[in-house]
Design brief:
This protein is of the alpha+beta class and 191 residues long. The protein has helices at 2-22, 35-49, 55-64, 79-83, 85-98, 160-173, 182-190, and strands spanning 27-28, 67-71, 74-76, 119-123, 129-134, 145-150, 153-157. The protein has a seven-stranded antiparallel beta sheet, with helices on both faces. The longest helix has 21 residues, at 2-22. The radius of gyration is 16 Å and the shape is globular.
Length: 191
């Protein structure tokens, strides 16, 4: 777990550096609660969702409690937002509006593309960029896949750390990637 923790911190530091360089800084929420309160909130989220949050994501929330403007206006939710049912409903609506399959889980006989039990951990105001945890993919170390949609194109990544790495790669690949529209961004991701 320590390697994963160091890795997500390194990936986040890279994003912050690239965003600062581009003149679009990433804003973090400061921690709002004590460690004991965070533990209770995590327990409530996990009990209500029916799965344990990945260790790296819990460490991120304990240290930063979410952030604004991670990528193209998308934020990572704070613990308060994860506890708020209105955010869960907005995230469900955004995922439904994408109307695209979740990578690796579509079969010709499946009547509906959407898997149940996903938990949204971030999105932008328009619902064009959406990040969700997939508890059906949990591994022995507690980490799980993150599915990210960028303008309708879904990408499955093996962990929260890999999501941050991927976002850093998108930011680093093209200096002006944030200025591009959805189709251009989709082409960059697909390449």
């Amino acid at each position: 777990m320590r390697t994963t923790a160091r890795s997500w911190r390194r990936a986040l530091h890279r994003i912050v550096s690239l965003a600062d360089k581009a003149g679009d800084p990433v804003d973090f929420y400061p921690p709002r609660w004590s460690e004991e309160e965070m533990t209770r909130h995590f327990a409530f989220i996990e009990a209500s969702r029916g799965f344990r949050l990945p260790p790296s994501y819990k460490e991120f929330l304990s240290e930063f409690d979410g952030c604004h403007q991670l990528f193209r206006g998308a934020a990572l939710f704070s613990v308060a937002q994860l506890l708020d049912p209105t955010h869960a409903n907005a995230a469900d609506d955004a995922i439904e509006d994408l109307n695209t399959p979740i990578p690796s889980f579509v079969t010709p006989v499946q009547p509906h593309w959407r898997r149940d039990g996903l938990i949204c951990i971030g999105l932008d105001a328009a619902g064009d960029v959406v990040f969700v945890l997939d508890p059906a993919s949990v591994r022995d170390d507690g980490e799980m896949d993150v599915v990210a949609w960028f303008s309708g194109l879904g990408v499955r990544l093996p962990s929260f750390m890999h999501l941050l790495d991927f976002i850093g790669d998108l930011m680093d690949t093209r200096d002006d990637v944030c200025a591009h529209g959805g189709q251009e961004l989709s082409a960059i991701i697909a390449a």
